[in-house]
Amino acid sequence: MAKSGKKARAVDHTLRKAPTGIKGLDEITGGGLPQGRPTLVCGGTGCGKTLLSMEFLVRGALQFDEPGVFMSFEEKSEDLAKNFASLGFDLDDLAARDKLTLDYVHIDKSEIEETGEYDLEGLFIRLGLAIDSIGAKRVVLDTIEALFSGLSNENILRAELRRLFTFLKDKGVTAIVTGEQGERTLTRYGLEEYVADCVIFLNHSITQQIATRRMRIIKYRGSYHGTNEYPFLIDEQGFSVMPISSLGLDHPASTERISSGVSRLDTMLGGKGFYRGSSILVSGTAGTGKSSLAAHFADAACRRGERCLYFAFEESQNQIVRNMRSIGIDLEQWVHKGLLIFLNNRPTLYGLEMHLVTMHKAIESHMPAVVVIDPISNLVAAASEAEVKSMLSRLIDYLKTKQITAFCTDLTTAGGGLEKTEVGISSLVDSWLLLQNIEASGERNRGLYILKSRGMDHSNQIREFILSDNGIQLRDVYIGPGGVLTGSSRLSQEARDRAEVFEHKQAIERKYREVEQKKVVVDAQIAALQAQYQAEKEELEMIIARENERDEASAAGNLALARSRKADEFTTRPETIGKTGKGGRK
């Protein structure tokens, strides 16, 4: 019993958390904000403090049945209701159902008189009434600078801030207090972060004319939390955060194989294609057919009835659909069926991390089996190569955990190293295909070979890569005395090879006819010898027959002579005629 009591007390002392319902934020905070304690959300103007705070209240009311109070010191309640209506938040409806209370407290600097007796007692009474009226579990104070805008005495500030945070704890509400960023401190006064149990910093920066929003958990008393900077997105669906740290390398590894859309390429990949959930990179210079190969892959996925998400950073959807028709691929049919979804944006539309968040949201929304990114090299326009590599590594890890097959194209620089990518992710991918131009005899033709494909037997040969009216065709290249032959050189050499084969065939046929003629002559000679042998045999048999007849005639004559002479019976016997017997005579 004593042991169970100790365990119960241990459970009671664990830090409880209030889930925010904001996608990604609960993940990096380990479950949400500290329940029954204040959290400081600080940052510069326009970074999203008010939005995060309001969404915390709305999702708490709708998803967790926890009413909330939003006390604003800057915006009126009706203005807040209008602003958040664009995000689908009906604040008036929540207020009518006692799920939310909006309270605007007007503070005029000219009305604030700095005295030693200045305190927030009136605010506490007003806030306490609002909490009790709806049984609020969540509270937002936006922003605290407006409340102390007329005070410069640090001692008064410190004392009243402590009183405010203590009041919120005593009420048992999970609170968010927003604050403006100071010049050298997280907040303008630099005091709130010390008394808050959790501090979240929002940053909205501009780099090379590209805006990027990031979040960082500065501290979280009594709890493990993510310590990196996390990109977040504000769109028509509200506030969303995405953890950027790479996930552990414990994702599943499927043994299922899926087609590349090019039958002969599947043959080069052990006869079965790529592994499902793997990452594929196709690199090459401009015009080598990277997008065409990506279109084949997307088309094959749609033919299997799978959904494909196509991120394009160079061409519009209509342009891609039109271009692929020239090689016999109709992507528009899959768009109409909802199997193929295009997201076409310039890489400079927003920051790299925002691209990553947007991709995550699209993947979560559409749940594709295949993702195409064409090309990844264009992302360098939004950030450095190192940042792009980091972003892509996180994206690839994320897709692998979802068992989504990633197909990336990469534009390499002409004249540079072939076995090198612009963003250096070749070591991260599972299969790497290289497309290159082969120049010979005044022509530029395409070649394809597989640099690597983990976990499968694959071809080490180069194939000529042909874009035809019926799609991509891979043909064996010809290795001639001068090296690899493609295009018209290969066709000419193949014609010469066919002519040489034909000449050899004719020579063989000619030799065969000569042999057949010799056989006829030999057969005739054999027949003549056999006829001669037969004639000689018949002649010998005739001679033997005549000799036998002569002997018989001679014997018969002798018998007749003996009888005429009255010879003894013995001597007249046919078998004794011509023989000398005992007592006989001739």
TrEMBL record:
Region (Disordered): 555-586
Keywords annotated in UniProt: Coiled coil, Transferase
Regions crossing the membrane: none
SMART domains in the cross-refs: AAA
Coiled coil: 498-550
Alphabetized GO MF terms: protein serine/threonine kinase activity
Protein name as annotated: Circadian clock protein KaiC
Species, as recorded: Pelotalea chapellei
